[in-house]
Amino acid sequence: MPKNIKSQDDRSFWDWTGRTFPSLVGAPSTRYYRECEQTLFKVFYPDLTGKKVLKTDLWDEAKNTRILHWVESQGAHVFGLDISTPMVEEAQGIFDKKQNAHFIVSDLRQIAYADESFDMIYSMGTIEHFRDYTKAVAECYRVLKPGGWIFLGVPNKLDPFLRPLLVSTLRALRLYSYGYERSFRRKALERLLEDAGFRIQGVSGVLFIPGILRMLDLYLHVKFSSATKLTAPFIAPFAWLYRKFPALRRHSYLITSIAQKP
Fold first, then answer.
1. Structure confidence at residue 99 as a pLDDT band (50, 70, 90)
2. pTM value?
3. DSSP states of 108-171 as a string?
4. Is residue 101 helix, strand or coil?
5. Chain segment 196-221, per-residue pLDDT in tens
6. Is 164 in contact with 4 (CB distance < 8 Å)?
7. Segments of the chain assigned E as strands
8. How many whole angstroms separate alpha carbon 140 and alpha carbon 12?
9. Residue 104 DSSP code
10. CB within 8 A of 206, min separation 6: which ones?
11. What percent of the chain is modeled with pLDDT above 90?
12. Among 24, 81, 95, 175, which residue has the fewest nearby CB atoms (within 10 Å)?
């Protein structure tokens, strides 16, 4: 890829991915992923009633944890954007018509919402797919209300299970389906937010699990769904550790900084 990737290149890739990538909903590791996401909200932003929450991609709603369904059930007004038209259409189609969700096609680096529109932004596994990720963070700051919160999750460069190395290997073999992906150290992630104007309020993470186990579980879910009964018992101990020892969460595959706009 060229150093300064064009928005249209990103859009074309994610349009293709949105049309061709299978659903991961229902896999044991996806259920664990959703539990981790819910825990983030319960610990750091428990009162969602009446809040306007923006999610910075709709991958989860179309293919994965569908976390915005749960956020909406807690009383929030949910909004989402994605660079991919097929992803937006699939996510919108999955949401119940009675649910109040507003999804648009928009580039995260140039968000099509007005300044100070949202109370909370949830961005999990999004900005690392852009080489110019600083623009995405600056846009999040712009559309967040003063006093608003952001959960920003990215791949952990110091993942104890060496997932960045696994991803690099799979990419070299042309076996990684998620395109360009950057990993971050916690301090670098915090500096990124602070440089944009945010104040760090906490650190956590999502998916304390070996990357190879997550990938194996998803492969079996897609190819031989009944075979995930083989991976589920191996995933359960990591879910237990995540619940039992909060300090382990910051060593997850997706490290998450919790920050506030002054």
1. low
2. 0.93
3. GGG-SS-TT-EEEEEEES-GGG-TTHHHHHHHHHHHEEEEEEEEEEEEBTT-TT-HHHHHHHHH
4. strand
5. 999 999 999 999 999 999 999 999 99
6. no
7. 52-55, 77-82, 101-105, 118-124, 144-155, 199-206, 254-260
8. 23
9. E
10. 33, 36, 37, 40, 124, 153, 249, 252, 253, 254, 256
11. 82
12. 175
Which amino acid is present at 199?
A: R
Contact 231, 216 (CB under 8 A): yes
Q: Please give the DSSP secondary-structure letter assigned to residue 21.
A: P
- Report which of 74, 82, 119, 78 is spatially closest to residue 101, judged by C-alpha positions: 78
User: Of 229, 253, 214, which is closest to residue 29 (Cα–Cα)?
Assistant: 214
Query: Distance between CA atoms of 188 and 191, rounded to whole angstroms?
Result: 5
Q: How far apart are the first and last CA of the chain?
A: 37
Of 93, 83, 91, nearest in space to 67 by CA: 91
> Residue 8's pLDDT is what?
66
Class of domain 7-260: alpha beta
User: Could you report the per-residue pLDDT of 104-116, keeping only the tens digit for each?
Assistant: 999 999 999 999 9
Q: Which of 208, 116, 207, 201 is nearest to 150 (CA)?
A: 201
Nearest to 117 by CA among 100, 137, 141, 82: 141
pLDDT at position 5 is 40
